[in-house]
Amino acid sequence: MKIGIVGFDTSHSYVFPQKLRALAETDPRYAALEFPLGWPGDPATAVHPEILEGTRKEMDALGVRPVDSLDALVRECDGFLLENVNGDTHLEAAGHLLPSGKPVFIDKPLANTYADALAIQALAEQHGTPVWTASSLRFEPNLLDALERSVDIQGIDAYGPAPYFEKGRGIVYYGIHTAEMIFSAMGPGIETVQTLWHEDGEIVAGRWKDGRMAVLRGGRKRVNAFGGVIHGEQSIAFSATGDFYAAMARRLGDFFLDGTCPVPMAESVEVIGFLDAAVCSREAGGRPIGVREALEQ
């Protein structure tokens, strides 16, 4: 099965194929996945243009041949890793990829806005295309262990780096990692979001429809680690120090081989709704914002 790689402005463009090749050494099922072609993407929209040259070298080492257009990739491949970091480009790319009906993984963030995320979901449903998205932090082993030991989860306080990038729409791009950890504990049902902002970081509080609450603490100064505390019958702390890339790669492989989507698209769309509302709350001076209200901003 030939998997085409879309976008070279992230290390994920070569790390995920590398991890899948490593899995194939112990499980021959994954040897069926090949990565012959890639489309580098438009440098003008890249969040990390400074790494494009280095990524190209890594892709060359993997034997990935670049093609000159996204449509050429669609014609030649059986599935796709959409790796462009800029969420503003994902709806347009989805317009090329999803009508093919071939399976697509969209790397985080699914989109930079709730409206774009909903549009991508609608495209996938229209064409019956298997598609999913996630941060690899969702599958971090210590988080999964903490979730397995948690009973009657009422909330989670999660932390992680939240640097801002020019094309990342504030908290959306890098805050997605911490938001994914939150939703892995809370599930869907986000209703209202409120942001307390400072240039060195921000705290985003979310209230779910059933009254449960969660907190995202995003730091932009001396914050390099992910972790949190899950609140249930007991409070269970975790530190995200496990090999989440390997865990993510296995789920990617299973998706392409048998169609398993480990995260429902409706939940992934809500993650973007949560982050979009966080941006809107910041812009509104910190007042609470309903997720549906974010569509109207």
Structure commentary:
The strands form two sheets. The chain has a seven-stranded mixed β-sheet, covered by helices on one side. It has a six-stranded parallel β-sheet with strand order 3-2-1-4-5-6, covered by helices on one side. Helix 4 packs parallel to helix 5 (114-127) and helix 5 packs antiparallel against helix 9. It has two domains: 3-135, 3-Layer(aba) Sandwich (Rossmann fold), CATH 3.40.50; 137-243 and 273-296, Dihydrodipicolinate Reductase, domain 2 (2-Layer Sandwich), CATH 3.30.360.10. It is α/β, with parallel strands linked by helices and 297 residues long. The chain has helices at residues 12-24, 52-62, 70-76, 90-97, 114-127, 141-149, 171-186, 244-258, 265-283; strands at 3-6, 37-39, 65-66, 79-82, 104-107, 131-134, 155-161, 190-198, 201-208, 213-219, 227-231, 235-239, 289-290. A hairpin with a 3-residue loop joins strand 11 and strand 12. It contains nine helices and 13 strands.
The tally of structural domains comes to 2
Low-confidence stretches at least 5 residues in length (pLDDT < 50)? Answer: none
Class of the largest domain, according to the CATH hierarchy?
Alpha Beta
Order of helices and strands: EHEHEHEHEHEHEHEEEEEHHE
CATH architecture of the largest domain: 3-Layer(aba) Sandwich
Oligomer: single chain
Discrete helix count:
9
Rounded to an integer, what's the Rg over CA atoms? Answer: 19 Å
Strand composition percent: 15-25%
